[in-house]
Amino acid sequence: MTPDLYADIILPVPLPRLFTYQVPAEPEFKHLEPGIRVVVPFGKKKQYSGIIYCLHRNRPESYDTKPILSVLDKSPVVTAKQLDFWQWIAEYYQCTLGEVYKAALPSGLKLESETRVYFNPDYEQSDELPEKAVKLLFFLSEKKVATIGDINDFLEQKNSFNLLQKMIDEKAVFVTEQIKEGYRPKKENFLRVGETYRNETELHEAFNHLEKAPRQLELLMRLIQLVGGAGNALQGKTISRKLLLKEHPGSTTALNELIKKKILEQQAIEVGRLEQWQGNLKEKNTFSPAQAKAYEDIEESFKEHTVVLFHGVTSSGKTELYIHLIEKYLKAGQQVLYLLPEIALTTQITHRLKKHFGNKLGIYHSKFSNEERVEVYRDLLEEKNYQVILGVRSSIFLPFRNLGLIIVDEEHEHSFKQFDPAPRYHARDAGIMLAHRHGAKVLLGTATPSIESYYNAERGKYGLVELHTRYDDIQLPRIVVADLKEARRKKQMKSHFTPELFTEIQNALANKQQIILFQNRRGFSPFLECTVCSWVPRCNFCDVSMTYHKKMNQLVCHYCGHTVTTPTTCQACGSPALSTQGFGTEKIEEEVKLLFPEAKVARMDLDTTRSKKSYQTLISDFESGAVDILIGTQMVTKGLDFDNVNMVGILNADNLLNMPDFRAFERGFQMMAQVSGRAGRKNKRGTVVLQTSSPEHPIIQYVVENNYYQMYRSQLTERHAFNYPPYFRLIYLVLKHKQKPVVDKAAQSLAEHLRALLGSRVLGPQEPPVGRIQNQYLSRILIKFEKAHSPGRVKNIINDAVNTLLSHQRWKYVSIHADVDPL
After folding, report:
1. Residues 6+ apart with CB under 8 A from 498
2. Does the pLDDT value for residue 674 go beyond 80?
3. Is the pLDDT of residue 181 over 50?
4. Residue 104 has what pLDDT?
5. Which class does domain 6-109 fall in?
6. What is the spatial distance between Cα 776 and Cα 663, in angstroms, rounded to a whole number?
7. Sign of the alpha-carbon dihedral angle for 223, 226, 231, 234
8. Which of 191, 269, 387, 779 could be bridged to 360 by S-S, CB 3.0 to 4.6 A?
9. Is 7 exposed, middle or buried (0-12, 13-18, 19+ CB in 10 A)?
């Protein structure tokens, strides 16, 4: 007798193990293989869709296995290479496979008892849905949204996953974890002349038959006109039902009668949600001599290195080199992943790449609806259209089949690092491992390389190609350092503008040129303060002051999102003397409008770019000249290309340099150099005004001189002295609990345990700068260890110590997570 078959399954839960279930003997379970989704019970009441990791015949001895309830796929939705990559992510970033699964798949491919199911009001009912589904549609049309648990109760059955999957595929309902925009159906109903009437005699009879139904006759005649005449109608050419009814409002009953009489046929045709490129494809541009040399150097470097660092100054034409490289790999039949740090950048680069690659280009980021992300995922899985994917960090989890090249643009950007929730991966580093699994190449492009990447290139681990001239030999911008301290002493400030910045803005506006103003804080003011007793409103759930947003008249916590209406009096002494302290982008916008009333002003920060189209609208308005002054946070520093920007203002460089972080000087240099690079990209040298209270600061001088190498050398010296990357590896252990004494004692106990094993490599515990977030108190332990040490061995020691601590009843409810290679 053959032993029973078992499946180890990845479930979307943060538990450090796989879960073994028995495979039933029924025929529907015969085709199971790794990567297929199945529905399984979990706990007393919950059900999840999980991914089969492997199949075996080893029955667990410590517990009785439950059977798999149903199968959701006929073929794997996760490839073998993806599962291997997931395993590496889980091991390297010290998280669970379940956490990787949650991050890797669009929510439309993850179903669980608490998944919210939404009725699609645009769905046009077809005969393809079973009776139970029709019954469920009526239920959802009344309720609007329900959990899968609610649906199970309504249908009086234990498992409705398979039925729901059919309804999701049919676009009758959709699932999502957060609604971002209205749903657009993937299928659309089309009409054509019924098969019986596709000859002249029968069609003529139909006209005679409809003489007493003038509305139906009118509809039939209009359909024939819309498909291009009787000849096309007799050949079965289709027309959109929506289009026909748009021209004849209120004719739904008449149309349904024509379908009932079989004079017309209706069929649902997949139309897709993603925008299709309709224009002509553009040939790639010719290189300048400097670009041609850089391209040759990259190709030569790829012969010896998997990873090449491409260090090109701002506006040197890096994107054009990327286009040539992409075309080369597409001709070889391979796929390309183009990673960007910010969604804002995809807006500009999408249009540029679409001109070259048309519908071979797919876009993947969080501003797309869940259904659009599922469509991109399935397109790649089934190897349909997309050969180039342009996306942000989550794109590394897509199901590539034949990946040849990964381009990481602006590789230095900390936006490539995922902070919460797990896995806390860095897309650049994870992308290099993904490329290794596919035998692909990686190009890291930037004007300001990260210290670690440049160090790897200098030591020969990566190839290095440099491009030091701007396209068309345009000079780098002139940088003017404006002394804030001196301007305040002489009372020369106009609001937050030094005389130098104010004058340059006036000149640019007079010359019909555009301006970017950079302030790396959103909101109106970082905090309010009572001028009588110095009371500052703080978040009820986090140890941080609340940011004032004037437009909403609210105080907002930028850590947990908690909001309150702005108080009119001090809650400590009752005084009405509350004043704003500091300034953010919202305040700068207000003041610019007062100081330059003739200028058209826009703001780009998290508050103004929450919807899917907001980036595109803002950037299009600025490109077209509808906006004169663009005020923004770090979003405006990253790779945006505007022809008419001749002046950039950095309002407070000191904020960038005074962060309690060993990377503060590196990051400050990168941000200032990048935002400066937005000026004077075409035709004329630009100007940058850099406002600071410390004009003599070394980093300010390096920015003025555009001296990356001196900044790099100075930072290497400091990091070597204090045991920081690239010489040492870092791991933060973050402990959380709702009671401060508990988290402090747990952290102390864990640090002592680790110190006994790792010695002076363990630092802390200490309270982070923000010691409480969402009513959870935090404590951190830092582990620094030499590059020569095995990361796997150190992580095993850490994991064992954490598991030992959590095994004690006393620390049962303490939450601990690791942040590997923190930024």
Report:
1. 482, 483, 484, 487, 492, 689, 691
2. yes
3. no
4. 94
5. alpha beta
6. 26
7. negative
8. 387
9. buried
State the Cα–Cα distance between residues 522 and 603, nearest whole angstrom: 10
Q: Widest CA span of the chain, in angstroms?
A: 96
Asked if omega into 660 is within 30° of 0 (cis), the reply is: no
* Cα distance between residue 520 and residue 605, in whole Å: 9
Phi, psi angles (nearest 5°) of residue 9: -120, 135
pLDDT for position 487 = 93
pLDDT tens column, 453-491: 999 999 999 999 999 887 767 778 889 999 999 999 999
DSSP, collapsed to helix, strand or coil, labels residue 269 as strand
Is 616 or 413 the better-scoring residue by pLDDT? 413
Identify the CATH class of 291-473. alpha beta
Confidence at 514, pLDDT banded by 50, 70, 90: very high
Average pLDDT of the chain to the nearest whole number: 87
Using the structure block, give the residue that is written with the tokens 């990048």.
Answer: 674
> In whole angstroms, what is the distance from residue 697 CA to residue 711 CA?
12
Q: Report DSSP state, residue 391.
A: E
Q: Can you state the angle between helices 252-260 and 214-226, rounded to 10 degrees?
A: 80
Bridge partners, 602 (sequence order): 630
Number of Cβ within 10 Å of residue 130's Cβ equals: 12
User: Taking the CA atoms of the chain, what radius of gyration do you get in angstroms?
Assistant: 30
Length of the chain: 823
Q: Which residue has the tokens 């039949």?
A: 333
Please say whether the beta carbons of 219 and 260 come within 8 A: no
DSSP string, 143-204: HSEEEHHHHHHHHT-S--HHHHHHHHHTTSEEE-SS--S----SEEEEEEE-GGG-SHHHHH
CA–CA gap between residue 391 and residue 604 (Å, rounded): 20
Helix (H) / strand (E) element for 434: namely helix 427-438
Report the C-alpha gap between 796 and 808 in whole angstroms: 19
Query: What dihedral angle (degrees, nearest 10) is formed by the CA atoms of 126, 110, 347, 326?
Result: -100
545 with 584: CB under 8 angstroms? no
What is the SS3 assignment for 742? helix
Q: Tokens 């150099």 sit at which residue?
A: 673
Residues 6+ apart with CB under 8 A from 229: none
Q: Look at strands 728-737 and 762-766 and give their pairing.
A: unpaired
Specify the pTM.
0.79
Strands 772-773 and 563-565, bridge-based pairing = unpaired
Paired tokens of 272 = 């897709």
- CA 232, chain centre distance (Å): 45
Tell me which of 267 and 591 has the higher pLDDT: 591
Dihedral sign computed on CA atoms, order 499, 502, 504, 510? negative
How far are the Cα atoms of 143, 160, 254, 617 from residue 154, in angstroms, in the given order? 12, 10, 35, 44
Is the bond preceding 423 in cis, omega lying within 30 degrees of 0?
A: yes
pLDDT in the model for residue 639: 60
The string over 53-80, giving b where at least 16 C-beta atoms fall within 10 Å of a residue's C-beta and e elsewhere, is beeeeeeeeeeeeeebbbbbbeebbbbe
Q: Could you tell me the fold of the domain covering 728-820?
A: Alpha-Beta Plaits (3.30.70)
- Residues 34/53, Cβ–Cβ less than 8 Å: yes
Could you tell me which residues come within 8 angstroms of residue 736 by beta carbon, excluding any fewer than 6 positions away?
A: 743, 776, 777, 778, 814, 815, 816
d(CA 747, CA 755): 12
Long-range interactions of 208-211: CB distance < 8 A, separation 24+: 210/263
Q: What is the pLDDT of residue 87?
A: 96
Give buried/exposed letters for 203-228 (b at 16+ CB in 10 A, else e).
beebeeebeeeebbbebbebbbebbe
Tell me the torsion sign for CA atoms 322, 409, 466, 687: positive
Cα distance between residue 291 and residue 312, in whole Å: 10
CATH architecture assigned to 478-521+597-718: 3-Layer(aba) Sandwich (3.40)
Phi first, then psi, for residue 99 (nearest 5°) are: -70, -35
